[in-house]
Design a protein that fits this description.
Layout lengths: L6 E10 L4 E9 L13 E7 L6 E7 L11 E9 L5 E10 L5 E10 L6 E2 L5 E2 L15 E2 L1 E8 L6 E8 L9 E8 L6 E3 L14 E8 L2 E7 L16 E5 L13 E2 L5 E8 L6 E7 L15 E6 L2 E4 L6 E2 L2 E2 L6
């Protein structure tokens, strides 16, 4: 488990340099008192490990920029890939406040030669735009959702893809969450594309922190959404991390087919394949305790497998939290 006694730790992502695993995570001081205040004080921390269980914190990766800037409020969730020339790219969400106080999110990146020292590129490379994506002008949501970039190489070697937490400009307000999409051929310049899913009355208001992987030969999409941000048709299911069966890493994705992998005690599930034995593992941050209060901190690895056509955390192997045993969604 990774925890910081003086800080809340939540969203996270990994990089593997072949010798060490690198954990990048959002954190903010518990001196804020109110866990909800953490979002506007988030920095991107960094820790390293050789076994995915014991972690050593090292120097932070990124902090917010001085204003005015697209990331002058906070630096939020991202992902890391390596360019063929050896350069590491950290794609992240930059948050700022619009004139009327609502949050606007855009995507930027930083580069590094060693995963430790990062240099931000000037300005964002992507933002929400018509006709495919909802912006603040619609006034249908509490922010302009365009965040959590998940970047991966095209399976056929044709450049790069980015998945983004975004919303469509049409459909029921609580079902407009879509898998945003962009393409690049050099990781520096990006072209916005139509979403890879469609809004639905059985959908979600937001599909947070998407990830696609081929797990034991089967493509799967992961995302996270809590009950209060799901459609009315979904609110009886206490989901945290959700999975969607997929035909390929590039979709399209049938969000109506989503099923929970964890309940809301665990959030932002991330898949990682262990280097030494190829075992796929799920990590998540500890979200809600028994009393509903925010916990924080990142779980130990949880092995996953396909059971009856669904990606499932292996029974009995969930980590213990400070409030008891983390719950796994029943199937």
């Amino acid at each position: 488990m990774f925890d910081l006694p003086g800080s809340w730790v939540w969203d996270f992502w990994f990089a593997d340099d072949g010798e060490q695993y690198h954990l990048f995570f959002l954190y903010a001081s518990r001196a804020l008192k109110d866990p909800d205040a953490r979002h506007y004080r988030a920095s991107i921390g960094h820790a390293v490990s050789t076994d995915l269980v014991s972690w050593t914190q090292v120097a932070d990766a990124l902090v917010r920029s001085d204003g005015p800037a697209f990331d002058d409020l906070a630096t939020w969730t991202g992902s890391i890939v390596r360019h063929p020339d050896g350069t590491w790219f950290l794609f992240y969400t930059g948050s700022t406040l619009a004139a009327h106080g609502k949050n606007v999110q855009r995507i930027g990146y930083a580069t590094s030669s060693d995963l430790h020292v990062w240099t931000k590129a000037p300005g964002p490379v992507l933002e929400a735009a018509a006709p495919w994506y909802e912006t603040l002008e619609s006034d249908a949501w509490h922010d302009e959702a365009f965040r959590d970039p998940w970047v991966f190489a095209d399976p056929d070697g044709d450049g790069w893809h980015m998945l983004v937490t975004a919303r469509a400009p049409h459909g029921p307000a609580d079902g407009r969450g879509v898998v945003g999409h962009a393409r690049s051929w050099d990781l520096r310049r990006w072209e916005l594309r139509p979403p890879l899913s469609v809004p639905s009355p059985r959908g979600f208001g937001q599909l947070e922190v998407t990830q696609v992987e081929v797990v034991d030969g089967r493509p799967v999409l992961l995302f996270s959404c809590l009950a209060e941000h799901a459609s009315a048709a979904r609110r009886g299911t206490p989901g945290g991390t959700w999975a969607v069966p997929a035909e390929s890493l590039t979709g399209p994705f049938d969000v109506d087919a989503a099923y929970p992998v964890t309940d809301d005690s665990l959030y932002v599930g991330r898949l990682l394949r262990r280097r030494d034995d190829g075992q796929w593992l799920l990590f998540a941050f500890r979200n809600a305790g028994p009393d509903g209060s925010f916990v924080g901190g990142i779980s130990d690895p949880m092995p996953v497998a396909w059971r009856h056509g669904r990606l499932t955390v292996e029974a009995g192997l969930a980590p213990a939290t400070e409030n008891g045993t983390a719950a796994i969604a029943s199937h």
